[in-house]
Amino acid sequence: MQSITYDYLVIGAGAAGLQLTLAMLEDTYFHHKKIAIIDKSDKDQNDKTWCYWEVGAGSYDEIIDHSWDKGLFITNEQQIDLKLCPYKYKKLSSLAFYQYAHEQIRKSDQSAG
Ligand SMILES: Cc1cc2nc3c(=O)[nH]c(=O)nc-3n(C[C@H](O)[C@H](O)[C@H](O)COP(=O)(O)OP(=O)(O)OC[C@H]3O[C@@H](n4cnc5c(N)ncnc54)[C@H](O)[C@@H]3O)c2cc1C
After folding, report:
1. CATH number for the domain including 76?
2. Spans of the chain below 50 pLDDT
3. Which pTM value belongs to this model?
4. What is the domain extent for residue 24?
């Protein structure tokens, strides 16, 4: 059996592990390092939905499900227009993020999962 040596082992390919790995792939310090990622799950299900606030463009805009730049607060007496600018409220499915991250990782030659 062929053995492979890795410089870094990321345990857990969830939000933290994948974001850490993507950041490592972008950082020139890690460009010649080998990174392994392990997870007990195949991460092929949409197990979470993430919503977050952001100003302007973000790293995951191409995979977000939806974003809102205005809101409406409704009570029995009144409706208030909520102007969210400069923020946007963005909704991201975890499966879209896992697939995006797996694709970025596959394109690099630094990692194996
Ligand atoms: C329904 C839901 C909605 C949420 N909505 C939001 C939101 O809107 N905004 C927000 O900021 N946060 C939200 N959160 C919280 C956010 O999802 C978590 O904070 C985030 O996923 C934590 O990241 P993590 O990498 O620590 O954990 P996870 O994303 O859960 O990843 C942990 C990984 O470790 C793996 N693992 C566990 N044990 C082992 C083992 N022994 N060996 C190998 N692998 C293992 C798991 O399979 C998993 O893939 C939500 C959470 C849930 C459940």
Report:
1. 3.50.50.60
2. none
3. 0.89
4. 8-112
